[in-house]
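It is worth pausing here to work through a concrete case rather than discussing structure prediction in the abstract. The textbook approach is simple: state the sequence, then state the predicted structure, then interpret. We follow exactly that order.
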Amino acid sequence: MNRCALSFLFRSGSLATLALSTALCGCDGGQNLVADPDYVASSPAAELASTPDSAPAADVETLEIGGRQVAVGPKRALFNGENLDGWTNETGGAPGSGWRVEDGLLRMVDPANGGDLLTKERFANYVFSFEWRFGRACNSGVKYKIEQPNGKGWIGLEYQIQDDANVEDGKIAKRRVASLFDVFPAAESKSAASFPAPTDDAPSGEFRQGKIVVFENSVEHWLDGERVLAFAVGDDAWAAAKAESKYKKQATFGTAASSPILLQEHDYPIDFRNVEIQELKAL
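Step two, the predicted structure:
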């Protein structure tokens, strides 16, 4: 079985090096790159991560992904807690009336008049963080690196959000929460037991934390402060997993260099908050 390693380095005013790797493993007959925080890589990519060509300024937060060091920009809100400025519907018009701002939350309260919600801005390399809560049997998601292959409808990578315990897709590993929908399954977070399945239809309970890190073809999914998935668009593992997915006939799936980020309306109410972005630049 092939192995590939992606090294990730998070720094803030430090020259310390932390190398993490991902291991290729089988899951439901498919392949997946799941981050193992206890495995220290000894690959050429990891060695490269430990010896950067030049040290950044002490006050610059950095991250290393895919063997490349990048600068992390300041965090800024994409949702201001007051209105839907900066967001559009699928065709660039005003968001559907089913999306509302209540008590500082971005809420999908009326799916019949919802539709997906997209950022007006396009992003290429970034850390996108968000929090959500949902009700019983909810199915939603965050889509990124998206495109309109037929000039309508947005298709791309999806960070899955759903009530795994109460939906059929929850029985399929690569369709569970924080997975790359229908392509790679996420590892179960250590905090999963702290978030029991909802019993009411309306969103309630504690908010969960999601994060998507994208730099060129290297991607990470985080859940509740834990990295649960890492993969590289276009490598051998990607090709094998895509060939077994619903996207196997979409030649350019996941290859968009820049795109809006999309919050999915999928017939269920859901609440979002702390929707923020930090853009990444190569050093």
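Step three, interpretation. Residues 107 and 132 are 10 Å apart (CA to CA). The radius of gyration is 19 Å.
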